């Protein structure tokens, strides 16, 4: 079949809108009609060429929601008409990782996913006979996409897809990092570096679990108003201080924060986030994704003296079993999504969504098909 899709031909080039060919779902696969998709900074990261797993030409997008159109042979848990969120972190329920009880990082399809292919090692997308690669197993910048059954969360049929698409990445990642990775306790002091969709979601999660003080840090002060709305108690711009920002935060908090979150993808900021943590127990969670060849560093003494460095992918959330609950939490008013959607547009304007992100003018743009 034909599908309208935004194709990334080459690192650094704008996407172009094409009528691509999509093959039907093979065994264990599902054809999904995407209704809406967010644009996450990770899409921009891969498009920039900084992602060691970036493959071109490809169809990016990993923050979508849609409707099942057709299922391939052997698919038992989904049927046409079901509403779904594609998962870049699958949940097979059977692999060593799924069975460990320690991680959400199912590896059942991760190797082929990283090669831009379906689990059988081939792509369902092409244009004029040329292969187009999948992205993160989701490729939500296409009206029709093919996704493994184990990479789809079935959600409440009444959930508004143009809103809950953001639970496919950003909002779930931030809230989950607070609840699952850091396990922030009531009364905690928290620092959040970077106030995009991820950082604001961390703030939302920190307020949900009863953090007492939430320090929001960004170099773009336009982000402060929304940070305060979500629960930030202090908003600071590192450019306003001559001291290193970690020292400023240690001084503000009688020795450092209980938890910090890096939501930018900047290895210098990752160090600041670790070093603003309290001696003896402070934990810093890396959420931001850094480019090929980048490395983090600190004095090992920072860890010897009790600070902990951790990372979080998709907020530690197991997509098939736990994401439907996040959707219901939105429907019950426990999770806020609407204020994140600062812009909506059609697929033909998708490059504008990237421009707005780079200019620091959007939190999330949602593409409506
Ligand atoms: P975004 O572009 O919307 O927000 C980033 C924010 O960081 C902006 O407000 C920007 O002003 C701020 N910033 C930039 N440099 C800064 C600095 N030096 N100090 C302080 N603030 C600074 O991005 P986003 O969509 O919120 O994504 C944030 C990061 O999280 C990206 O690296 C993205 O790839 C990553 N991410 C990771 C996961 C995961 O599962 N680990 C999931 C989603 C996104
Ligand atoms: N491909 C990159 C890593 C990208 C990355 O870390 N992705 C996050 C999700 S970002 C969503 O916006 C993730 O889930 N990572 C775990 C995984 O299995 O990819 C690289 O550096 O190679
Ligand atoms: Zn993302
Ligand atoms: Zn698994």
Automatic annotation (TrEMBL):
It catalyses: S-(hydroxymethyl)glutathione + NADP(+) = S-formylglutathione + NADPH + H(+); S-nitrosoglutathione + NADH + H(+) = S-(hydroxysulfenamide)glutathione + NAD(+); a secondary alcohol + NAD(+) = a ketone + NADH + H(+); a primary alcohol + NAD(+) = an aldehyde + NADH + H(+). It is an enzyme of class 1 (oxidoreductase). Keywords: Metal-binding, NAD, Oxidoreductase, Zinc. Pfam families: ADH_N, ADH_zinc_N. PROSITE patterns: ADH_ZINC. Its cofactor is Zn(2+). Residues 12-367 form the Enoyl reductase (ER) domain. InterPro entries: ADH-like_C, ADH-like_N, ADH_3, ADH_Zn_CS, ER, GroES-like_sf, NAD(P)-bd_dom_sf. Its EC number is 1.1.1.284. Has high formaldehyde dehydrogenase activity in the presence of glutathione and catalyzes the oxidation of normal alcohols in a reaction that is not GSH-dependent. In addition, hemithiolacetals other than those formed from GSH, including omega-thiol fatty acids, also are substrates. Also acts as a S-nitroso-glutathione reductase by catalyzing the NADH-dependent reduction of S-nitrosoglutathione. Belongs to the zinc-containing alcohol dehydrogenase family. Class-III subfamily. This is S-(hydroxymethyl)glutathione dehydrogenase. The lineage of its organism: Bacteria, Pseudomonadati, Pseudomonadota, Gammaproteobacteria, Oceanospirillales.
């Amino acid at each position: 079949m034909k599908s309208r899709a935004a194709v990334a031909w080459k690192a650094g080039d704008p996407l172009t809108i094409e009528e691509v060919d999509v093959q039907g779902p093979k065994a264990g696969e599902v054809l999904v009609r995407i209704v809406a998709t967010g644009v996450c900074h990770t899409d921009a990261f891969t498009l920039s060429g900084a992602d060691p797993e970036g493959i071109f030409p490809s169809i990016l997008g990993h923050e979508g929601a849609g409707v099942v159109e057709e299922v391939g042979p052997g698919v038992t848990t989904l049927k046409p008409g079901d509403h779904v969120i594609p998962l870049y972190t699958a949940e097979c329920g059977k692999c060593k990782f799924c069975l460990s009880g320690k991680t959400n990082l199912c590896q059942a399809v991760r190797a082929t996913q990283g090669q831009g292919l379906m689990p059988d090692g081939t792509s369902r997308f092409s244009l004029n006979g040329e292969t187009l690669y999948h992205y993160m197993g989701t490729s939500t910048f296409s009206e029709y996409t093919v996704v493994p059954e184990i990479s789809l969360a079935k959600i409440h049929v009444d959930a508004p897809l143009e809103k809950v698409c953001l639970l496919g990445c950003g909002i779930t990642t931030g809230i989950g990092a607070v609840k699952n990775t850091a396990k922030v306790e009531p009364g905690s002091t928290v620092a959040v570096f970077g106030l995009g969709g991820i950082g604001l979601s961390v703030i939302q999660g920190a307020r949900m679990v009863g953090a007492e003080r939430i320090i929001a840090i960004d170099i773009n002060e336009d982000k402060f108003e929304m940070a305060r709305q979500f629960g930030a108690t202090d908003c600071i711009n590192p450019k306003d201080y001559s001291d290193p920002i970690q020292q400023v935060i240690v001084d503000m908090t009688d020795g450092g924060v209980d938890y910090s979150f890096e939501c930018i993808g900047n290895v210098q900021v990752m160090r600041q986030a670790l070093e603003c943590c309290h001696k003896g127990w402070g934990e810093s969670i890396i959420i931001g994704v850094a480019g090929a060849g980048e490395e983090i560093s600190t004095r090992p003494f920072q860890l010897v003296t009790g600070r902990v460095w951790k990372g979080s992918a998709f907020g530690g959330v197991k997509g098939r079993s736990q994401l439907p609950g996040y959707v219901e939490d939105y429907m019950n008013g426990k999770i806020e999504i609407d204020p994140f959607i600062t812009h909506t547009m059609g697929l033909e304007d998708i490059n504008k969504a990237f421009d707005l992100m780079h200019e620091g003018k959007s939190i999330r743009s949602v593409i409506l098909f």
